[in-house]
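Can't paste images in this forum, so I'm doing it all in text. The chain is below; anyone willing to post the predicted C-alpha cells underneath?
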Amino acid sequence: MTSATTLLVPDECALVLIDQQAGLAFGVGSIDRQTLLANTVALARTAVAFNLPIVASTSASKVYSGPLMPPIQAAIPGVQPIERRSMNVWEDAAARAAVIATGRRRLLLSGLLSEACVTFCALSALADGYDVLVVADACGGLTTAGHELALRRLEAAGVKLTSWIQVLLELQRDWTRHETYDAARAIVEAHGGGYGIGLAYARDMIHPT
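Text version of the structure:
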C-alpha cells in the first residue's frame, strides 16, 4: 500500500464515482444538493484534467435512481457507467474488475449515500490493500449525523478524508506545471468560490512588471 504520508500524484490515483444519481440525491440531507453536484463535477473535471482513470457505477438506474446525473456525465463524456445490483461496488464483479483494471492503488471515492454504498466500497477496498481516500464534500448522506458517523467509522478504519479542492491542489502543487495549469485554474475559477474569484482577479488585474 502507498504510504499514508505520501502526497497524491496523478499516476497513482483513480477516481471511483458511486451512484451519483438524482434519485439518490433527492434523499441527501447532509449537504445542499446543488453544492454536492457542483463539488462532484469539479472533482470529475479534476480527474480528467490530470488524466486519472475514472470508474463510474450506478444502481437501479431504470427503476428508481435514474442515470448518472447529466452534469457529471458531461464532465466525463468518455466514461460509461457500470450498472450493478449490489450496494457494494466491491461485491459486483464487473465494477470491481473495472477498478482493478485501472492498475491504480490509490482510490478517490465520491458517491451516494455516505452511510451505505460509499462506506461499503471504501471498507472493502481498504481490506484488499488499497489506499482509499473519500472525497467527503463530494459525498452525501441521508442526514448530517449519518454522514458524519459514516466518515468517523471510515477514518477509524484507516480511510483518509479529503475535499475536491485539496485533491486538485495536491495533484497540481506547482502552478508552473504548465501541462495542467489551464485546466486546473479553470476548474478553480468555476467551482472554487472566493479562491476562484481571487484567481480570476489576479489573471485579469495583476500584471507582472
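The chain has nine helices and six strands. The two ends are 47 Å apart (CA to CA).
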